[in-house]
Amino acid sequence: MQKYPMTPEGQKRFRAELRHLIEVERGAAVLAIEVARAHGDLSENAEYDYAKDKQGMVEAKIRDLEAKLGLAEIIDPATLSGDRVMFGATVTLQDCDTDEVVTYKLLGSLESDLKAGILSIESPIGRALLGKSVDDEVVIAVPRGTRTFTVTNLEYK
């Protein structure tokens, strides 16, 4: 079984989403089916077909979230420490060519959000960073070739 590394905050967010799906979305889908069913002939009732599809999507999402939460391995980055990059690390990198500085937090694939600077440990950049220390050079393959970065800071928070 594949475990999903997850922060306590991520677990809380996924549990809230699951609760919303069960308590709100599931009931709304059932109500929409009842309303559409009241319109008569189901064989040519697009509203009924849409409501059934919506219910199927809600149920699939519920099953998916329940499975992922059941396989979650909760890791609090604030309790971690060390001098090597691993799950939960906030890593600051400096591009060796342009001196551009970027900061990423490495979390599991379920919590990754590139816009927020959160990378999956399973992404190409995340895999390249794992095990690195401050002052290590990291060569990362990008669509336009490769880029070389230096790890300038590493912390767990």
> What is the helix fraction of residues, given as a range?
25-40%
Low-confidence stretches: none
Rg, Å, rounded:
22 Å
Binned strand content: 25-35%
Q: On the 0-100 scale, what is the average pLDDT?
A: 92
Number of strands: 7
Helical stretch tally: 3
Largest sheet: 5 strands, mixed
The backbone outline, from C-alpha atoms, is elongated
Strand order of the largest sheet: 5-4-3-7-6
Through-space gap between termini: 28 Å
Q: What structural category arises from helix and sheet content?
A: alpha/beta
H/E topology pattern: EHHEEEEHEE
TL;DR of this structure?
The protein has 157 residues and is an alpha/beta fold. It has three helices and seven strands. It has a five-stranded mixed beta sheet. A two-stranded parallel sheet has the order 1-2.
Write up this protein:
- The chain is of the alpha/beta class and 157 residues long.
- It has helices spanning 8-37, 46-70, 124-129, and strands at 4-6, 72-74, 89-95, 101-107, 118-120, 137-142, 145-156.
- It is built from 3 helices and 7 strands.
- The strands form 2 sheets. The protein has a 5-stranded mixed beta sheet with strand order 5-4-3-7-6. It has a two-stranded parallel sheet with strand order 1-2.
- Strand 6 (137-142) and strand 7 (145-156) form a beta hairpin.
- The longest helix has 30 residues, at 8-37.
- The mean pLDDT is 92.
Q: SSE layout and pairings?
A:
Blueprint (H helix, E strand, L loop, with lengths): L3 E3 L1 H30 L8 H25 L1 E3 L14 E7 L5 E7 L10 E3 L3 H6 L7 E6 L2 E12 L1
Parallel strand pairs: 1-2, 4-5
Antiparallel strand pairs: 3-4, 3-7, 6-7
